[in-house]
What does this fold into?
Amino acid sequence: EIVMTQSPATLSVSPGERATLSCRASQSVSSNLAWHQQKPGQGPRLLIYGASTRATGTPARFSGSGSGTEFTLTISSLQSEDFAVYYCQQYNDWPQTFGQGTKVEIK
Amino acid sequence: QVQLQESGPGLVKPSETLSLTCTVSGGSVSSSSYYWSWIRQPPGKGLECIGSIYYNGNTNYNPSLKSRVAISVDTSNNQFSLKLSSVTTADTAVYFCARKISGLYFEDYWGPGTLVTVSS
It folds into this structure.
């Protein structure tokens, strides 16, 4: 199965600053990559699919890029509600697999 | 807007069968536009796909769990269900149900999750 590796494990950022999260696939997943946000005690929420397409309701400050094996999620100006754990998910091959997550915390 | 809600026992004994149900509102499990998924998250760990089912009963299971998993759909009650047999403590996790768009295969709506603990 495809292994997804996210970095860093934890990112400490001040409100208003930019956050850049990385996701690497062990083999090419084309653009079949999604990003999900998870807050404590909640189910994940889809943010981005197709590597760069924002899901309905995703604020414009979230952007995704990349293809093949290297992907990035950028949050241009962190708001208080953005502090959460972010997971990348490849859906190019079955079983679909997730990264271990990046926790974005308040600096 | 579609909503999903997991339900079932929070405690299961080792070697027994874990059974969970997901109730869907605001959408139909009979729609040909979606698959319906189960995903789990062990405490402090990442997410793992268990499997999914289409409205016609076609299923896909994670090979690592395939011998122990069964997912079914109940169109009359707009629900789908998970059974995981011969559980061990390694199956302790928060279990999520989710909707997956047919042809795209990523989850677009998730339930809040339910914690299942395997312990004697």
Summary: The radius of gyration of chain B is 13 Å. Chain B touches chain A through 21 residues (CB under 8 Å).
